[in-house]
Amino acid sequence: MQRKIAIIGTGYVGLTTGACLSYLGHKVVFVDKDEDKINMLLKGEVPIYEPGVDDILEKHKDKISYTTDIEKAVKQSEVLFIAVGTPSGKDESIDMTFFRKAVKQIAENINSYKVIVNKSTVPVGTGEWTKEEIKKHYKGKFSVASNPEFLREGSAISDFLEPDRVVIGVSDKKAEEIMLDIYSSVKSKKLVTDIKSAELIKYTANAFLATKISFINEIANICEKVDGDVIKVAEGVGMDKRIGPKFLSAGIGYGGSCFPKDVEGLLSISNSYNHNFSLLRAVSDVNRRQQERFVEKIKSVLLKVKGDIVSVWGLSFKANTDDVRKSPAIFIVNELCREGIKVKAYDPIALNNAKKELPGSVCFCNSALEAVEEADVLALLTDWPEFSEIDLKQVKQKMRKHNIIDGRNHIDSEIAKNLGFTYKGTGR
Ligand code: UGA
Q1: How far is the CA of 151 from the centre of ligand 1 (A)?
Q2: N or C, fewer C-beta in 10 Å, the chain?
Q3: Which fold has domain 4-193?
Q4: Which of 20, 223, 258, 365 is catalytic?
Q5: Which CATH number does the domain 259-424 belong to among 3.10.580.10, 3.40.640.10, 3.40.50.720, 3.65.10.10?
Q6: Would you call 20 a catalytic residue per the annotation?
Q7: pLDDT tens digits, residue range 67-95?
Q8: Is the CB of 248 under 6 A from ligand 1?
Q9: Helix (H) or strand (E) segment spanning residue 260
Q10: Does the CB atom of residue 383 touch ligand 1 within 6 A?
C-alpha cells in the first residue's frame, strides 16, 4: 500500500532514497533545514549529481513535496527516514551532531504512531539511543528501525531498486510489517534482523570491501617486485566463488565519502569497546601508503622533479561522479605540488569541486589532450571511460616525454608500448 514517508536530509542518500520510494508508489515529503536546497528542489533543480535522480523526481512529482518545516513533515507522515550526514569527527569518531538534532526534532513533534527509520551510517547502539530519546518526550507508541543503504555513487538508482539485499533491523512485528510493505515491490532478498546487527552490517560490508581493495593492492605491490600481473592474479582468484571477482581492481587506493569514513568509524567503534581491530587498521594504512607509493612512482621517472610537468587525468574518487571527497587523486596532486612539480589536470566533471581542494598552482585544463601538452608524465588517476578511448598517437605528439603511469590499469598497455610510451601500470 502507499505509505506516507518523510525523508529528513536531502543529501545524496536522502534524495536517492526518497526518489526511489516515490518510484515505488509512496508519498514522499523531503525536509531539510537548508532553505537554499529546498528552494532549488522546488524549482526542479537537483543539488546532487547522480544519474537518474532528476528524472524520477520529475516523473513522480505528484507524489513528492519539499519543505523546511520538520514539524509539518513529522506530523503528516507515518514513516520517518533519517538520512542526514554523519561525517568523520575528531579522532576517527563519527560526528553525530546532525543525527542527534534530527532525533530531537522528531521527539518534539511526534504526535501519533510512527516508524523512525535510520538510513544514516551510525554507531552500533544508535537505534536504542533513539528510542530512549523519543521516550523522554513522547509517551505514545512508536517503533525504531535500521535500514542501511548500500548505494554506490553513479549507480545509486539501480542499487536501490535492484539491490543484492534489503536489510531491515527492527525490534517489533508492526515495524517489520510496515518496512517489508514499503519494499514489497523490490524483488530481492530481504533480511530482517535486530537493530544492532543491521547497524553493524553496513560497517561490515564497507570495511570488508575496503579490505578486498587493500588486499589486492598489496598483491599488486608484490606483482611489481616478482614481475607478475595483478589483473591475471585477480582474475584467477576471483573465479573462486568463495572470493568472487568484484572489488579486486588494484589501483591507487579507495576514496570517497564512505569507505575511508566507515573504516575509521568501525575502528572507532572497536576502540570504544576496547577491541583492537588490527586487521582493519592495516587496511587503512595500506590505503594511505598506496597513494604515497604512486607519488614515488611518478618521481622515479622524472629527471629533475622540481619544475617537471605531470599531466593528471581524473580527479574524482572514481568514474561517473563529480565527488572528490577523500579522492586519492586529490591527495596525489597535492603531494606533487608540494614537491614543486607542475601539474596540468583534467577531469570530465569534477574540475569545479577539485579546484576547492587543490593549490592555485595547478593548471586546470578543458580536455584530456590539452592536459598532456608538454608533459613529462601522464598519470591516470580515475578510470573515466573517455580516457581509454583517446587516441594515444595524438597524446604522444603533444607530450614532451613519453611516460604513462596508470594508477587504474585503464589504458591499453600494449597499444601504449607499441607507440613507444614507457608504460607503468599498477601491479603489472
Ligand atoms: C560504497 C559502497 O560500494 C556502497 O555499497 C555503499 O552504500 C557506499 O559506499 C556508502 O557507504 O554509502 P561508493 O563510495 O559510491 O560506494 O563507491 P565504490 O564504487 O564502492 O568505490 C569506492 C572506492 O573504491 C573508489 O575510490 C574506487 O575507485 C575504489 N575501488 C573500488 C578500487 O580501488 N578497486 C575496486 O576494485 C573497487
Answers
A1: 9
A2: N
A3: Rossmann fold (3.40.50)
A4: 258
A5: 3.40.50.720
A6: no
A7: 999 999 999 999 999 999 998 877 777 89
A8: yes
A9: helix 259-272
A10: no
